[in-house]
TrEMBL record:
The active site is a redox-active disulfide bond. One of its GO terms (molecular function) is flavin adenine dinucleotide binding. This is Dihydrolipoyl dehydrogenase. The keyword Nucleotide-binding applies. Binds 1 FAD per subunit. It comes from the Bacteria. It comes from Maribacter stanieri.
Amino acid sequence: MDQYDVAIIGSGPGGYVAAIRCAQLGMKTAIIEKYSTLGGTCLNVGCIPSKAMLDSSHHYEDAIKHFDEHGIEIPGEIKVNLAKMIARKQGVVDQTTKGIEFLMDKNKITVYEGVGSFKDATHVNIKKNDGKTEEIEAKNIIIATGSKPSTLPFIKLDKERIITSTEALELKEVPKHMIVIGGGVIGLELGQVYKRLGAEVTVVEFMDRIIPGMDAALSKELTKVMKKQKVKFALSHKVKSVERKGGQVIVKADDKKGQEVVFEGDYCLVAVGRKPYTDGLNADAAGVKLDDRGKVIVDAHLKTNVDNIYAIGDVIKGAMLAHKAEEEGTLVAEQLAGQKPHIDYNLIPGVVYTWPEVAAVGKTEEELKEAGVEYKVGQFPMRALGRSRASMDTDGFVKILADKKTDEVLGVHMVGARCADLIAEAVTAMEFRASAEDISRMSHAHPTYAEAVKEAALAATDDRALHI
């Protein structure tokens, strides 16, 4: 029987990063993955392929809507080749997953293909695709099994017309009318992909606003922008049935007045979140406790109730974000090596990769009000930037929330071009407990989108933004 210092069940961003860091720190490491490719949901059917589709569809939209204004004339009709677009997406995925294989080899990490399940607290059975089982032993085990798409109890996913994000990345045609159930990150991103490609898109959301976990100002701005893009929204609608009739899908919902509303389309994307994946893990055999939502219970050090077993990423509490899982994988590895790492969960950014992008870190206005914290607001519109006008990306703003007495930055919220990258500046500043004035006095290159961060900081510092 092969023996290891650490065995990791699951090879998503949390799992493979944990494996690399363990190996870097001198531990004999194994990683177990049930699929034939490494990288988990994120690399195979999540973050990476969805961004590839977002970029491809963005290029198409620019070509048909904006190239002429830029003085670029293309003779003939511009057409979408969806099969080619999806093939390109798959090429990106293949290249990325092969990169993880390379990193496993480089760091001398043993990879096992099969379903990993606990035999006891130090032994893992690996059931392979051919039905054979192999057993390994490990001093420490990290659960990194991730999550899978959630659904509603009355919805039967046929994975043809009533689909999840996984199937939405492999469609053979552009829908005529895609009904998206859920106004969160996944629904909005994939909805925008197919809207750009020519589909009618209707987002049906139970809450009274989209991206409900983010600052209300971001929700309001993104709704306004996506309505300009002709995406339809049915907010405060409770879906009660989804039925397929041949090539049609009928969704029935009650609006906030309790009146029934019927939506008809040819595809329905169910994007109501994700749930922890522990199928086949056999956690009971190791004595590992789960909560009533199926998440693995961990302490502040990400240790389960069993002393040598840890859990990270989507399978535990907190935001289901790849970068959160990576930080947690690193933290566990460094703890096992005797180090004292730290994660500030308040400073893990959230991003929506629509265009314009949406990004945030720290506290929202709603959270500060609820906590009774006195704060001030500095906000600057993207349309006031020369760089935004040059690129025709004038939607959005940057908003900085700072403590009214100390001026410490408590939250940064932004909508606009490249905000997914801009948010790193806010994270860096907040990690060092910067004040709004600190940011306002840093030189920002001109012309850039990042100048909006400086201007918002100026606005929060005695309302002295320069360009509005």
